[in-house]
Amino acid sequence: MKKKGEYDFGVIERKWQKRWQDSKIFEVKEDKKKKKYYVLEMFPYPSATGLHMGHALNYTIGDIHARFMRMKGFNVLYPMGYDAFGLPAENAAIKAKEHPAKYTEKSMKNFIEQQKALGLSYDWSRMVITCNPEYYKWNQLFFLKFLEKGLVYRKKSPVNFCKKCNTVLANEQVHNGKCWRHEDTEVEIKHLEQWFIKTTKYSEELLSEIKNLEWPERIKLMQENWIGKSYGTEIDFEIDKKIWKIFTTRPDTLYGVTFMVISAQHPRLMELVNEKQKKEVDKFLKKLKSVSEKELEEMEKEGVFTGSYAIHPLTKEKIPVYVGNFVVADYAGGMVMAVPAHDERDFQFAKKYKIPIKIVISPFNKKLNEKEMKEAHTKDGILVNSDKFSGLESKKAIDEITKYLESKNLGKKAFNYKFRDWLVSRQRYWGTPIPVVYCEKCGIVPVKEKDLPVLLPEKVKFGEGNPLLTNKDFVNVKCPKCNNNAKRETDTMDTFFDSSWYFLRYCDNKNDKEAFNKEKVRYWMPVNQYIGGAEHACMHLIYARFFTKALRDLNILDFKEPFLKLFNQGMLHGSDGNKMSKSLGNVINPIEKIEKFSADSLRFNLMSLASPDKNSIWSDTTLESSYRFLIKVMKYFDNVKIGKSSNKIKSKLNKTIKEFTKDIEDFNYNLAIIKLRALFDYFENEKEIEKEDLGKFLKILHPICPHITEEFWGKLGNKKFISVEDWPKVDESKIDERLEQEEKIVEQTIEDIKNIIRIIKERQGKEAKKIFLYVLPKEVELYKKEIQHIKTILNLEIELYAVNDKTKYDPENKSSKAKPNKPAIYLE
Ligand SMILES: [Zn+2]
Ligand SMILES: [Zn+2]
Q: Please, which residues bridge with residue 323 across strands?
């Protein structure tokens, strides 16, 4: 792209990147006298393919914000690190026949270089890499603290298993019944013993605090739904002399219960299955797979009788218990009372297996008949066949029946969450080893704190099961308690464990005595502005919130929420409008674009495309236009005559700074750029300009284009980096509102003329050749001043008349339509 005599962006950019690095201007320390501001982007997992355009967008948004807040005088912490453990690296490494450690190291090196090429103002001295023992040691310590506190437990339960990942998954990692990494792979259910973190201990706080967060509403809603609190009644049903507590939101239908359904994944299912039914139940269980809530709605409801009966708490009737495919193990304890007359799923099931249907809620306007029902009556109504509650309205019956159950000690008001504990163990290699030992005598024994970290061994075999099992020196250990032979845990931690607290480690990343110093964290945390994609709404963002609360209760932290504000960037699509993907061949490589056009042009273009929180479509044309604009700016600065600024430019500049600042604060970067381009047009039309005003222009352009602004700031004779200069203040007294108002009027007139030209062309097929403008006498001066500007924009001849001008040309008497600030227009 660079032609002879033009600017070499590459040289300029590399020069300033090196100067920033050498002078360490972005490295920060705690400073009680300065107000802190913590800007953070979700850290990436380093892959060999390097930075993609989504990263470039994400980091540019963050960098602009960080640079802006720095210039506003804040002590800005803006760090970067790598979510370096994880399955993608392990799988890619296996494929490339390389050790995951090597693969990750190479990928990270590449990533860092590419991020530096974008001109990001990170404090690189605070880098955090999760696969380093200096980091994961603290994962292990936190794990043990949680274990001590009862926040970690091991249990056999039905778990999600992905064949392709060859490991179990957390509930949060199952999306619509498929693996979050493998959209084509159905998740299976396996009954395995696994490690869980008791995230549900914080269900209520996680839910109730959402409303206080300055996060996008949709993310807040997603978290609320994920936690999913519902209110109802818990009713005791006796099965085989044992009490089963059954949650329902419809206790008003209690008299209509004709069967019970236990989830196929219920851990206690087998207690209910008797000898006679065992074969059939086993057959049924073999066919099951994990399904999404939506699929659950649509699929055929199936089940098998377990052989057990529950006793109805009020009527004492015997009610058969079925195992069914439509009850989620995670909901309401995994067993429901079925009321076929008033629940559609139960209705379908009852029809299929010829179970009696009993109407207990009668609609207000008609009478139901069991034999004629085509679907369940799920709405409100009047209770019938419900003993002494018959005749009550269903809403009222909910309270009355609950009260009655409470008085008989057969139930109570209750609520229920959809939220489940976090399955945190993985049967994979590239993660933090779980620091416990299994001893035949002592059971589960935590590794002693002084023996941490449990290092991930380098030598393992990949390919058959969990690679860690193949290293005998790792597996065979002495029991920390009794010193007998014992086995080490070979599961590793879900990498979401690593990313649940990395933002704390940035505050004190070199500490080898503790995970972080409490005082340092108190100074920097919480994160003021977090930036990342919406895909983490119900994974990372929930885990990190949980972690913060759990550490607070361990007296390690003294605040309750990690991220005050969250910004979700939109998705950048390929120029064909589709999601960028290799198979569509529409992937744009940011580094190629930087090499061809420069980082400043790329940043400027990314921010011009759309509001950063909206989806946008990549365009090479706009990138070239951004590039040409920046060349124009540089040429201008090299040739500008320094002198005195006109009042007009002072007004424009101050007005723009005012509006631009607001736009940058609100992340309306695209709008800020439009204003900046307009301001530049005015600059270009001035004969001379003050040095200070040129400096102000560079300062506001700086967060978006950090390199060329440093370059020309220096050329203006400044010694300090513009990166650490103050953000320009607005001088309101310089804003000439009358001038601004006049301009608005003229702009509106231009728009009006354009509209008339368009209408005449559409309706009469005529091209306008000449414009006649009729203005009020007192507006003549203004329009005379602007006439050249209007001509240039419209590229047409214009004649201007005062409405009272006797000599005017006005064949259709249009001049009578002129109003204040709104000239009449005639076209020929
Ligand atoms: Zn998978
Ligand atoms: Zn022992």
A: 262, 304
Residue 468 C-alpha to ligand 1 middle, in angstroms? 19
The alpha carbon of 672 is separated from its chain's Cα centroid by a whole number of angstroms, namely 24
Q: Nearest ligand to the C-alpha of residue 160? A: 1
For the residues 703-712, what does the mean pLDDT come to? 98
Say what the pTM is: 0.87
Question: Which pair of structure tokens corresponds to residue 302?
Answer: 């199936």
Q: 575-599: per-residue pLDDT in tens?
A: 898 888 888 888 899 999 999 999 9
Strands (E), 526-635: 527-532, 563-568, 572-573, 616-617
Which is it for strands 75-77 and 81-82: parallel, antiparallel or unpaired? unpaired
**186 pLDDT above the threshold of 60:** yes
Range name among 152-156, 325-329, 754-758 with the lowest pLDDT average: 325-329
Which listed ligand is nearest to 483 at the C-alpha? 2
CA–centroid distance, residue 445 to ligand 2 (Å) = 7
For the chain, give the mean pLDDT: 93
**Which residues does 525 contact at the CB level (< 8 Å), separation at least 6?**
38, 503, 504, 507, 557, 559, 562
User: Which ligand minimizes its atom distance to the CA of 480?
Assistant: 2
Per DSSP, the residues of 410-475 read: SEEEEEEE----EE-EES-SSSPBP-EEEETTTEEEEPPGGG---PPPS----SSS-GGGG-HHHH
In this structure, which ligand is nearest to the CA of 163? 1
Rounded Cα gap, residues 485 and 438, in angstroms? 9
H/E run at residue 607: helix 599-609
Taking the centre of ligand 1 as the mean of its atom positions, its distance from the CA of residue 183, in whole angstroms, is: 8
What is the Å distance from ligand 1's center to 494 Cα? Answer: 13
Reading the block at residue 600, the tokens are: 């400043």
Per DSSP, 642 falls in state: B
DSSP code for 42: P
Q: Which long-range contacts (CB under 8 A, 24 or more apart) does 718-722 make?
A: 721/19, 721/20, 721/23, 721/25, 722/698
Nearest to 437 by CA among 140, 188, 778: 140
- Closest ligand to 487 CA? 2
Q: Which residues pair with 318 in a beta bridge?
A: 311
Note the pLDDT of residue 330.
60
State residue 743's pLDDT score.
Answer: 83
